[in-house]
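USER:
I would value a second opinion on how I read folds in token form. Give me a protein, with the fold worked out from its sequence. Write it directly below this note and I will take it from there.

ASSISTANT:
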Amino acid sequence: MSLLPRVLKMPLERILSRRRQQRVFRMLDRRGAGLEIGPCHNALAPKRDGFQVKILDHLDQEGLRKKYQDHPAVDLERIEPVDYIWSGQSYAELVGAQRFDWIIASHVIEHVPNLIAFISECQGILREGGRLYLVVPHCQREFDRFRFPSGSGEVIDAHLQNDVRPTPGTVAEHHLRAVTKGGPHAWPLGGPAPIAPCTRPPRPKRP
């Protein structure tokens, strides 16, 4: 039987996720013990596919389902049980003696306020020879299209200041520059859809 009809029925996001998974596990041993950070509904190493994986997120499964219950792009049934609920502590403290052969963080690094600390935290819970695999969105194909690129100086400053959350300026920059294209906040494929700001200035009141 041809795979084409099955592929056509699959949502685009799921097709792209499958492709990302295939790319990831060209470099990682799928039989190893892994950790996936913040996968929400789009895990690249889901437990349901037989991966020996733990999940780290800021809420448990029920909390994530409640948070995204009105989000049209989130399939609540694909949110898996969370093993480690992070609330600001070090990863080593959170996972205890557990160590991992690989860590996946997909679409996470762009939200991290302290890049150096994040990578160091991940390194601390990897076994010798373990790998950290980062999946980073293309800045021209999502809501950050008109954001200025981050520089190495900003990364160093954030680490020396021990930033644990985005600064007010970073939050303002997001709201001032975030855009959509034809409605979605990310557009993995090109197309002639209009780009519009996510936040529109209030209209002046008539006198």
Observations:
- The domain at 1-136 is CATH 3.40.50.150 (Rossmann fold).
- The chain is about 30% helix and 15% strand.
- Confidence is low (pLDDT under 50) at residues 1-9.
